[in-house]
Amino acid sequence: MNNVIDTILSHRSIRKFEEKLLSDEQIKTIVECAQAASTSSFIQAYSIIGVKNPATKQRLAELAGNQSYVAQNGHFFIFCADLHRHEVLAEMEGVNLDETLESTEKFMVAAIDASLAAQNAVIAAESMGLGAVYIGGLRNSLNDVSELLKTPDRVVPLFGLAVGYPAQNPDKKPRIQTEHIYHEEAYETDSETYIRQLEDYNRVISAYYHERTEGKRTDTWTSQMAAMLSKPTRMYMKEFVESRGFNKR
C-alpha cells in the first residue's frame, strides 16, 4: 500500500462543502492532472469547462435537479465530449472528417477520454485534501446546459464535478465484491454463482443502510436498482447527441 492507493480506496462522494473557493493554482493543478490521463490514439477528444460565476452555478444547480452542491462548492468543472477541435483541425489541414467524427466509435472515444480525465481530476483533488462529487444531473436538460455554456456542435457536456473543502465525512459505501466485478479469462456465466454473489452483496448493503439510518432504511441493492431502472429517464439523449453531430454512423 502507498499514499496513492490509500487515496483511491478512501474515496467518498462529498455533497457538502465549506464556503471556501479553490485557488487558481489548485484549479490549474487539477486540470493538468486530468490532462495527464491516457487518451485514445492521442486524440484528446474532451474539454473541461470551469464555472466560478455564482449565478451560472445556481442555474446549473436548477437544471441538474436543484442539487445545492452544484452551486455551493469550491469550484465546478464540466467534462465534455469534444470533437469540435478536430473539425477545426480538418479545416486547417484541408480534409473532410465528417464520416469519422459522426461515428459511434468516435463518440465513445470522446466519452471515454473525458471519463478518464475526470477520474484523474478526482484523485488529484482528493490527494490535496479536497472532496468531490460527480453530477450526472446536468444531462436532465442538455439543451439548456449547452446554451448556457455556449458549447458548439460536436461538443456534448457529459457530467459535472463539484470540488471543494469537505464539510462532512460520510461513511464509505460498500462496493460490489471484487470477485463479482473481476472475471478471469472469460465472463462468469454460472447463474447460481452470479445470483449468490448478488444476494451476498444485498445483505451487505441492507446492513449498511440499516446502520446509517438507524433502521429507517434496509433496502437491498438489487431492489434499489430494479426500482430505479424501471423508470426510463433522459430518453431524448440519442436525438440530442445526434443533433450535436455525434453517433450518426
TrEMBL record:
Q: Where is the Nitroreductase domain?
A: 8-165
Q: What is its EC number?
A: 1.5.1.38
Q: Which domain of life is it from?
A: Bacteria
Q: Does the keyword Oxidoreductase apply?
A: yes
Question: Which keywords appear in this protein's UniProt record, sorted alphabetically?
Answer: Flavoprotein, FMN, NADP, Oxidoreductase
A single GO molecular-function term is:
FMN reductase (NADPH) activity
Q: Which InterPro entries match?
A: Flavin_OxRdtase_Frp, Nitroreductase, Nitroreductase-like
SUPFAM superfamilies under this entry?
FMN-dependent nitroreductase-like (SSF55469)
**Which class of enzymes does this protein belong to?**
oxidoreductase
Q: Give the family per the record.
A: Belongs to the flavin oxidoreductase frp family.
PANTHER family recorded: NADPH-DEPENDENT OXIDOREDUCTASE, OXYGEN-INSENSITIVE NADPH NITROREDUCTASE
Recorded protein name is Oxygen-insensitive NADPH nitroreductase
- Underlying gene: nfsA
